[in-house]
Specification:
It is built from 7 helices and 4 strands. With 141 residues, it is α+β, with helices and mostly antiparallel strands. Bound molecules: adenosine-5'-triphosphate and magnesium ion (MG). Belongs to the NDK family.
């Protein structure tokens, strides 16, 4: 079965949305096979978001992502990578459609706050493998 790496970001944790996100994943028929609460370190974020390291928003992204606990999950299911991307909705909460996690639960914080959008999901099976190895090294042989 395919796997994806899901993070409930600090805004999702702080706003009490863990149950809501997990409930949507379970109701969709996907299986949570790894789960932990952690506060990301700068090193973990530089690895996790390596593709964004040179972007103008990278510093604010790291500040946001290390501002409190997150929930990291390994989720299993058929075509779960693309399905969970669809469940998340657009990166920008202002553009995310109703029915998606971001479209229902996130708000547009504007340029000063960066993009706080509740969840992360791997963007490809290759990214999922890399991200699962980062957040759940104990699950990878
Ligand atoms: P994620 O990788 O967290 O699942 P994503 O794949 O939808 O989100 P990316 O383009 O990978 O979006 O951006 C990673 C994260 O960086 C976004 O989720 C958002 O929190 C932040 N971000 C992206 N673009 C911007 C921007 N223009 N300004 C501020 N923050 C941004
Ligand atoms: Mg991404």
């Amino acid at each position: 079965e395919e796997h994806t790496l899901v993070l409930i970001k600090p805004d999702g944790y702080a706003r009490g949305l863990i149950g809501e996100v997990i409930s949507r994943i379970e109701k969709r028929g996907f299986k949570i096979i790894g789960l932990k609460i952690t506060i990301p370190t700068q090193e973990e974020l530089e690895e996790h978001y390596f593709e964004h390291k040179d972007k103008h928003f990278f510093n604010s992204l790291c500040e946001y992502m290390s501002s409190g606990p997150i929930v990291a999950m390994v989720v299993e299911g058929s075509r779960v990578v693309q399905s969970f991307r669809n469940m998340m909705g657009d990166t920008n909460p202002a553009l995310a459609l109703p029915g998606t996690i971001r479209g229902d639960l996130a708000r547009d914080w504007g340029p000063d706050r960066g993009v706080e959008n509740i969840v992360h999901g791997s963007d490809s099976p290759q990214s999922a493998d890399r991200e699962i190895a980062l957040w759940f090294p104990e699950m990878v042989d």
